[in-house]
Amino acid sequence: MNTIEWLMAEIAPLRRLLSNHLLYDSIVNISDARMLMEYHVFVILNFMTLLQELQRRLILSPPIFPSKWHRLPNHLIREILISDHETEGRYNQMNYFDLYLHTMQEIGCDMSKIEQLLDQIKKGETLEEALIHCQVPPFASALILQTTNILKGKQLHIQLAAFIYGMEDPMLILLNGLLNRIKKRKLPGKTDLFRYCLRKGIIIFEPLPDDSSAEILEILCGEDERKWLQVVKAIKNMLNFQLELWNHLLTELVETPFNGTFEELK
Question: Which pTM was predicted?
Fold first, then answer.
């Protein structure tokens, strides 16, 4: 078993819990979709924060790899960034985070928490400082703080692993799980924008056929057992926080009275 196979075996139980989460079968009406997006938007923000740091370190900074390897991280991050900006039609000027916010507004989500957080950041506060003043869902806040600590540590092998296996991979699991359940139900009504937002996310987070992420991680960690253990610990923390967030959201969905149907979706 090579190191990547060992890593995947270590995180497999948490990935299974995410893949089989009861949350996906619980999104059955417009109120559920709203609540999901009100929680998940903080995960998207967290993803974009980590992506921007990796872009700075792997593309905008001087090469940290030998020249023969430098194309690998550039290829990985650039493909994600290009996909993020290749949005069709009336949304072609939006990155995925902006598209997500727009979809939230269109389906009537409560925007107050995410807008309050973004306003605090625009005023010059750090994410950590802004979280203190905003009513962010508890496990979303914990996930963001975990990512902030990873960024502060400035250890690229941990940052990249957290991004690929701790954020990108579970994001794809969630979006595929939701879209597949919605398709099976053949829900009525104008669900176009909500479905489009899910599909767009899948396109962005889907690994490329010649995905080089594992190869980059192997270069960064080499045969250093300490680094591999650090990587697995960081990934497990990220996955656990997201599991707890979905558990919390599932509890909220069960306790929230039904309000509307998918026919209200624009």
Answer: 0.84
Q: How far apart are the first and last CA of the chain?
A: 49
Domain boundaries, position 29: 3-254
In a domain, 266, yes or no: no
In a domain, 240, yes or no: yes
pLDDT in tens, 235-255: 999 999 999 999 999 998 887
Note the pLDDT tens digit of each residue in 120-141: 999 998 888 888 888 888 888 9
Q: What angle do CA 251, 254, 256 make, to 5 degrees?
A: 105
Helix axis angle, 30-55 relative to 71-85, nearest 10°? Answer: 140
DSSP string of 49-115, one letter each residue? HHHHHHHIIIIISPP-S-TTTTHHHHHHHHHHHHHHH---GGGTT--HHHHHHHHHHHTT---HHHH
Residue in 61, 62, 95 with CA at minimum distance from that of residue 203: 95
Q: Which SS3 state, helix, strand or coil, does residue 148 take?
A: helix
The answer to the question of residue 263 being in a domain is no
Is 130 within a domain? yes
